[in-house]
Prior knowledge:
Layout: E1 2-5, H1 9-13, E2 25-29, E3 33-36, E4 38-44, E5 47-52, E6 56-58, E7 62-66, E8 79-82, E9 87-89, E10 91-92, E11 102-106, E12 112-116, E13 120-124, H2 129-139, E14 155-159, E15 164-173, E16 176-180, E17 187-190, E18 195-199, E19 215-220, E20 225-234, E21 237-241, E22 251-254, E23 258-263, E24 268-270, E25 278-281, H3 291-294, E26 297-298, E27 308-310, E28 313-315, E29 319-320, E30 325-328, E31 335-339
Amino acid sequence: xRKLALSLAACALxxxxxxxxxxxxxxxxxxDRYDEQIVSIxxxxxxxxxxxxxxxxxxxxxxxIRFDEGTHGEPTGPxxxxxxxxxxxxxxxxxxxDSKDSFRLKTTTMxxxxxxxxxxxxxxxxxxxxxERKLTSKHLAWLNAADFAGRPTQDxxxxxxxxxxxxxxxxxxxxxxxxxxxxxLGVLTFPLKDVEILVLGNTGEKKLAGPKGTAVRVRCxxxxxxxxxxxxxxxxxxVLEHPLGSASSPVTIAQKDLLDLFVLNGAFVYVSDLEPTxxxxxxxxxxxxxxxxxxxxxDRENFEGGRLRLGGRTYExxxxxxxxxxxxxxxxxxxxxxxxx
Length: 341
């Protein structure tokens, strides 16, 4: 039986005053917290095990690992959002002339990646953070819907100067976005500097296959949020099974670029990682309801979509809601405890 939590706050409050030992990671397990340096994470006896110099902990019993307490400013530059809701910061590089289905993404944390367009939900082109949140609410609400209900039927290029053009994307590269807009416009190329956001329609994949093993989500110093199956952590590097990687070239992130790691399918599950089967949200009579602004949000505050704050503290996990909001989640008898603040 697994434990269910609305946010990280419940276990964090009990340890808020403790200082982390220099050179150590903060490991938050279900039953305790440890400030110890991680030696390795990897398979052992049919399960994934985290090892420090003092102990071995099954990774399924870990909620969070905090690698870096440093403060990082708001990220800037292009951001690619995948269908699994990963957000990857990087620059779009010159493309392969023979490849029209993918583009090269140069990142500071994961090196060069080949991003298949069928796995991408949207690309933000150097949009200010405050506008990113508004555009996400406006154009990507379908990412949170069952079976991506409401996803646009075609690809759409939104320009910084205003206006939009729909069609089918033929290529993405440092030279721009090439879009077949159909008759009478034909094939158009938009320089990246003129584009605010590209939203990919439903011609791509419906869902991305989940990892085979223990699934984690990591938050990186460059503003990227990446999820996948953990292959190993050793020698200061985290290796992940990821949609933009391959068996021969998995995604690798250096420890210096890691901020947090959350275990997604262990003995502790966050409500914000579950899909509600019923959503009922509205305003009182006489008030206009705008779902893009006031609809519930995962791991973000309601309205502008900033980081969750409660009692002067900031939390990475939780639900942002407005009154009235009722969310129903199927538990299936899989949990024995609920923790929330």
